[in-house]
Amino acid sequence: MKKIIRLTNHSAIEVGLTGGSDRPTIMLPIAKKSVYNQEAENLKLWGVDPELGKHFVEGLADTFQVLYFDYEGHLFQHPVDNLTVDHIVKDLLLIADEMNVKSFSYYGYSWLALIGLQLAIRTNRLESLVMGGFPPYNGPYQEMLIVTHKTHTQALNNQNEAAEKSSMETENPDEIDWDNIKVSMDTRVTAQFVALYESLTAFDDRSIHHLLSLPKLAFAGENDTIVYGENFGNVTVDIAGILKKNTTKLCDLGWDVEVLTGSQMDHTKAMQPAMVIPLIKPWFIKQL
């Protein structure tokens, strides 16, 4: 079943629900739509599954009911003026309500993982939580605020220049000079993520774990460390390092923690369905 739902800002998003209605539900806001032909070949250069959303849904729907949509893609098409955590949580709960899903588990990756953490402390409707590519303890919120602010500043500076294709569309990632890459994104899109991390400046993820009385899993690729150059604030976002450093603490707080191994297991590789489903599906099954 698919349905068009009006979100908090009145924009319309397509949401799908598949699998048996008598099964536990997993919310997948990471379900990007499939792409084909040259666009698919370009994504493959980056190690990105061009049918990522489809493979996640198919990989889980034989055992669970899956509530799926592409929230990030929607924000790129329909930017929100003030994208706060509260705004996003309202959107996700609205989607669940409109699809008649009362309780559900949640899987999110990267910034959508941190949204899962926010969702878990704001509602009792979550049955379990999986966070990939963003640590649930001592997360890099300040670093991401710097990176998103620098990205937005560059987008503002470049908005009057001739439109260029993004590097992901035109180049091999091994040939890109990341320190000198030009940001030519829509400034309304980049502003959203500045607002998101600004809304988290007072948030202390070390003090909220007593609110999380549900099964929870955190994972990352062992090489998920991004060193940003001067154009992006000279910061390091060390997802893997933070997760490894705090594994004992997280386990004491009731988290399961996994590090995906492999020399190429960076932020992008560790989000692909071929890597993630063999980890999260058995984990979700254990919670049944």
Description:
The chain contains 11 helices and 10 strands. It is globular, with a radius of gyration of 18 Å. The chain is α/β, with parallel strands linked by helices and 288 residues long. The strands form 2 sheets. An 8-stranded mixed beta sheet has the order 1-2-4-3-5-6-7-10, with helices on both faces. It has a two-stranded antiparallel ribbon with strand order 8-9. The model is unreliable at 162-170 (pLDDT under 50). A hairpin with a 5-residue loop joins strand 1 and strand 2 (12-18). The two termini are 24 Å apart. The protein has a single domain, classed as Alpha/Beta hydrolase fold, catalytic domain (Rossmann fold), CATH 3.40.50. The protein has helices at 37-45, 52-60, 71-77, 85-98, 111-122, 141-158, 167-170, 187-198, 239-245, 247-252, 273-286; strands spanning 2-6, 12-18, 25-28, 65-68, 104-109, 126-132, 216-221, 225-227, 236-238, 255-260. One of its GO terms (molecular function) is hydrolase activity. Keywords: Hydrolase. This is Alpha/beta hydrolase.
Structural class: alpha/beta
Can you tell me the CATH class? Alpha Beta
Number of strands: 10
Principal-axes shape call: globular
